[in-house]
Amino acid sequence: MTSLVRRVILVAVVVAIALMFAIAALRVARDVPTVDAEHAGMVAPFASAIGISARTATLATWLVACVSAIAAALALRGDSLLRRAAAEAPDALDARRFTWLWRPRPWLAVTTLIVLLGLALRAHAAAWLPWDIDEPWAFPTRASIFDDSHDALVHPPLFRALALGWDALVGWTLRAPRWLLRAPSLVASSAALALVASLALTRPSPRALVALVCAALATAPIAESALARPYGVACLSVVLLAVIVLDSTARRLTSLEAALCVLAFALAAWTDLVAGLAAFITLALRCAVDLRARRLRDAVVLSTCGSLLALPLVPGALRGWRTGIDPETSALQGVLPDLLPDAQLSYAFRAHELFAALSDPLPAASALVCLCALLAIAWHRGARVPAALLSALSALPLALLPFIALRPRHFAWLPLVALAVLLVLPPPLPRRAP
Fold first, then answer.
1. In this structure, is residue 430 part of a structural domain?
2. Can you tell me the distance from the alpha carbon of 5 to that of 11, in angstroms, rounded to the nearest whole number?
3. Which bin fits 326, alpha (ψ -120 to 50), beta or left (φ > 0)?
4. Alpha-carbon distance 219 to 195, whole Å?
């Protein structure tokens, strides 16, 4: 039952990612070609080097992503989730501690209720958070994806194309429901929570219950991923890749997991630079595990697909870092002074207090203590791969500080990855007899 539910979640994620790429590709196909290379977007340096337009390079790379996902699914065919679940022994639980909650049906019901709570909180945030901390109000003023703004210089074009395409589908207006305009981010954030839940389904335990509740209530994924900004989609891509890697280190990838690895890496790299680096670290760790386990074909396929998909962004990313990423853009709030009534500013809502709390040093210090404790437990229990993944992703902010003005939103995926690591930790090592 739990493996079937997990398979359904993974298939639903494939469909969601495919729809995101389709909406973005349709919007890119209608975009006006870039004329001024000096102000062109992140794809322009690579595109001009090979003599094509940024639009053509983007569409070609996304087509390569789809073909690579299919090729990886055909090349890396491990045991299916259902067949493997039938061969595996059930989770070993101490009979003295076994209660009704850890049985399959009650555990599935409890997991579903917790996930529904998390989805309700995300939907409420998407419907309530004010416009001026969002981006859709600015999109209609800039019709081009690849030029005419600093944002295009320092951010990959996928989310910009997705948001513009979605705005065109639903009809952008300030009178439209906020959750509708933020639907792509809301769907992506909800899918990230469902992925953590799918990992918990096969591990019924008090630890899994705590991890699920924390994943549903974590403030950063709720507040930052519910906005029409790239961070909801980035959260989905990094969490998806981390969940697959953490759940399959001791075996080969299934066809579905191989395709999802390629799609998740493409989604992360073309949505946000920080998420792309996190996805690169995760994919590189998976390739290292495959090489150590003599799964050479798996490592070659994943590394080749990742390199092909990231290559068009590398020259533009280097230029963006030299330019300066994520500068203060408060002046942009004057673009539509007559269109944004004062009542919709965040200072008129308690949302401003929420975002102020996220930047307070106390939550950051608490999160750092929890991460350090989790890392110590992972290393002590012999979970080398989860500990290495969490160590590398936690060190990423320090490595990027000289280049990027980092904010909590750039790492909205980190709490969910940490909770996924908590779920896959082995039981405590038995104590030696005195």
1. no
2. 10
3. left
4. 17
Nearest of 280, 285, 288, 278 to residue 305 by alpha carbon: 280
Is 115 within a domain? no
Residues ≥6 apart with Cβ < 8 Å to 204 = 91, 93, 101, 102, 103, 104, 107
The pair phi, psi for residue 253, each rounded to 5°, is -75, 145
In a domain, 126, yes or no: yes
pLDDT tier, 286 (very low <50, low <70, confident <90, very high otherwise): very high
Q: Where are the alpha helices (DSSP H) in 129-182?
A: 150-154, 158-170, 178-181
Q: Does residue 381 form part of some domain? A: yes
Q: What is the DSSP letter of 402?
A: T
- Residue 295 C-beta-side C-alpha neighbours within 13 Å: 21
Q: Where are the alpha helices (DSSP H) in 326-360?
A: 351-358
One-letter amino acid of 432: R
Alpha helices in 54-143 (DSSP H): 54-75, 81-87, 104-128
Do 375 and 390 form a contact (C-beta atoms < 8 A)?
yes
Tens digits of per-residue pLDDT, 350-409? 443 444 444 455 556 667 778 888 888 888 777 888 888 888 888 887 787 766 666 777
For residues 381 and 428, the answer to whether their CB atoms sit within 8 Å is yes
What domain count does the chain have?
Answer: 1
The token duo for 34 is 């870039």
Q: How far apart are CA 124 and CA 182, in angstroms?
A: 11
**Amino acid residing at 130:** P
At CA 190, angle to CA 185 and CA 193, rounded to 5? 130
Q: How many CA atoms lie within 13 A of 213 on its CB side?
A: 7
pLDDT digits (tens, 9 = 90+) for 160-196: 889 888 888 887 776 778 888 888 989 999 999 999 9
- The three-state secondary structure class of 208 is helix
DSSP state of 286: H
Distance CA 426, CA 207 (A): 11
Neighbours of 26 (CB within 10 A): 13
Closest of 130, 237, 140 to residue 178, by C-alpha:
130
Q: Dihedral sign, CA of 247, 253, 256, 257? A: positive
Distance CA 80, CA 85 (A): 8
Range of the domain at 301: 2-91+120-325+343-424
